[in-house]
Amino acid sequence: MPKPLKILVVEPDESRARMIMDGLAEAGEAEVMVLGSATGLARHMAELGPDVVLIAMSNPSRDTLEALSVASGFNERPVAMFVDRSDDATTRAAIEAGVSAYVVDGLHKERIKPILDAAIARFNMFARLRTELAAAKTALAERKTIERAKGLLMTAKGITEDQAYAILRKTAMDQGRKVSEVAEALVTASDMLR
User: Fold this and answer.
1) Contact between 99 and 68 (Cβ < 8 Å)
2) What is the rounded CA–CA span in Å between residue 118 and residue 69?
3) In 3D, which of 60, 13, 10, 81 has the Cα closest to residue 40?
4) Is this model's pTM higher than 0.85 or not?
5) Are 36 and 12 in contact (CB under 8 A)?
6) Cα–Cα distance, 89 to 26 (Å, whole number)
């Protein structure tokens, strides 16, 4: 049986918070925690460890978005925000603060769960893209280091590029290391000898 979703709700209005809790209860099992304000949001998120955060406010203030931005920096997780009104700048600021779903004038009990599901799906998609981007950056950096190491070997030994790569690969195999690690060591040693 899957573990119930831990949902942190930030809603200053008690009646709206109750409506959100009712909507979540009707949608299925969830462990719901409610905060009356976004003050100390990062600390509360670290302490409570929610799987997803739902923020409902009539009009999010700059302080709320800053608190969310700080909280998102340390506690990456899906965030859905329901607001009664908004403008372009606030929408942009909310997205930059880490909001996965930003819904204007749409806080209705029956819409909460589908929107949370969409926020989770979007968050997971962006997390996967961030992971792939980081892997691509690492691969590119390793390739640059290997190219530089091959250049050093070609200059020092007067050999071809293929021969230089073969030396790197054989050394890596002999030492049980990655070619990029051997290349990095060679480049570092070369830099130290300058």
Assistant:
1) yes
2) 20
3) 10
4) no
5) yes
6) 34
Determine whether 55 is exposed, middle or buried from the number of CB atoms within 10 Å of its CB (0-12, 13-18, 19+): buried
Residue whose tokens read 């009539």: 58
When the pLDDT of each residue in the chain is averaged and rounded to a whole number, the result is 89
Q: Count the Cβ atoms, other than its own, within 10 Å of residue 58.
A: 12
State the virtual CA torsion across 101, 106, 112, 114 in degrees, nearest 10: -60
Write down the residue that tokens 């909507």 correspond to. Answer: 23
> What sections of 37-178 are H helices per DSSP?
41-48, 62-74, 88-96, 112-157, 161-175
> CB burial class (10 A; 0-12, 13-18, 19+) of residue 2?
exposed
User: What parts of the chain have a pLDDT lower than 70?
Assistant: 1, 73-75
136-193 fold: Arc Repressor Mutant, subunit A (1.10.10)
Domain 5-107 CATH (choose: 3.40.250.10, 3.40.50.1760, 3.40.50.2300, 3.30.1360.200)? 3.40.50.2300
Q: Domains of the chain: which residue ranges?
A: 5-107, 136-193
At 131-157, the pLDDT tens digits run 999 999 999 999 999 999 999 999 999
